[in-house]
Amino acid sequence: MAHQFYKYQGTGNDFVMMDNRKGTFPKDNFGLVSSLCDRRVGIGADGLILLEEDEETDFSMVYYNSDGNPGSMCGNGGRCLVAFAKYLGLIEDKTVFRAVDGLHRAEIDERDIVSLQMQDVLDLKQRPNYTFLDTGSPHHVQLVKQLGDFDVKKEGAKLRYGLYGKKGSNINFVEANGSDGFYVRTYERGVEDETLSCGTGVTAVALAMHSTQMTQSSTVTLHAVGGDLQVRFEKDAEGYKNVCLIGPAKQVFKGEVEWKG
């Protein structure tokens, strides 16, 4: 039996999207997810996302990493899912949906620019050489020099396994670009490689750079390898609130795929 799929990307972070409101996708078949995300023998993607029914919101988001395992919150994936929901006619320009880390509000404009409200961040751990925080997924943020020549996969893997153990963390390497902009390259756990962009990662970078006084602005531009994103936030005595991840989300293509079972 053929199953419809859609391919979306947000600043180069790409996802296989499936409308699973009828519950036909075998959600426990992690090997199937991995094969669909494989760039040689499958569709190819950084992750797979199911859009499902939710009793209290417009829809729910079920996210898998490209290794087939269920993942934590994916910011770019969430933005792409909002664009997918609009394509399906489920929403117009505003929505509320459920993800693994709770409810998210979002808006999408006529240019497919999606503004996604992320979770509040009240706890940032400052260390001499890096900052650690959770923006829906755990993130290590570290300033480096000559980021363009940096071996992100090698050094990211060292930190992902060596510093954070089996559970791991995403690793973001950062270089300043003026006072309100930063270049970012991210080693993403679950993909186990550098990705062109990471939504929760650039969100973590923006908050970490503000917390360490690398920027005074409450709107920060992040230059990922796959394109530019913005993070807007408010800071109070408790931490960071009204955090929004802003950037494009585009449908790349659609097709059909078959699997057994």
What value does the Rg take, in angstroms? 18 Å
Order of helices and strands: EEHEEHEEEEEEHEEEHEEEE
Distinct helical segment count: 4
Structural class call reads: alpha+beta
Proportion of β residues?
35-45%
- Write down how many β-strands occur, each being a DSSP E stretch of 2 or more residues: 17
Distance linking N and C termini = 9 Å
Q: Outline, from the CA principal axes?
A: globular
Explain what this protein looks like in three dimensions:
The chain has helices spanning 30-37, 75-87, 152-162, 199-211; strands at residues 2-10, 13-19, 47-52, 59-65, 94-99, 102-108, 113-117, 124-126, 131-134, 138-143, 170-176, 181-188, 193-195, 219-224, 227-235, 240-248, 250-258. It has a 17-stranded mixed beta sheet that branches. The mean pLDDT is 96. With 261 residues, the chain is α+β, with helices and mostly antiparallel strands. Helices cover 17% and strands 43% of the residues. Strand 5 and strand 6 form a beta hairpin.
Keywords:
261 residues; alpha+beta; 17-stranded mixed sheet
Layout of secondary structure:
Elements (H helix, E strand, L loop, with lengths): L1 E9 L2 E7 L10 H8 L9 E6 L6 E7 L9 H13 L6 E6 L2 E7 L4 E5 L6 E3 L4 E4 L3 E6 L8 H11 L7 E7 L4 E8 L4 E3 L3 H13 L7 E6 L2 E9 L4 E9 L1 E9 L3
Parallel strand pairs: 2-3, 4-5, 10-11, 12-14
Antiparallel strand pairs: 1-2, 1-17, 3-4, 5-6, 6-7, 7-16, 8-9, 9-10, 11-12, 12-13, 14-15, 15-16
Summarize the structure.
With 261 residues, the chain is α+β, with helices and mostly antiparallel strands. The protein has four helices and 17 strands.
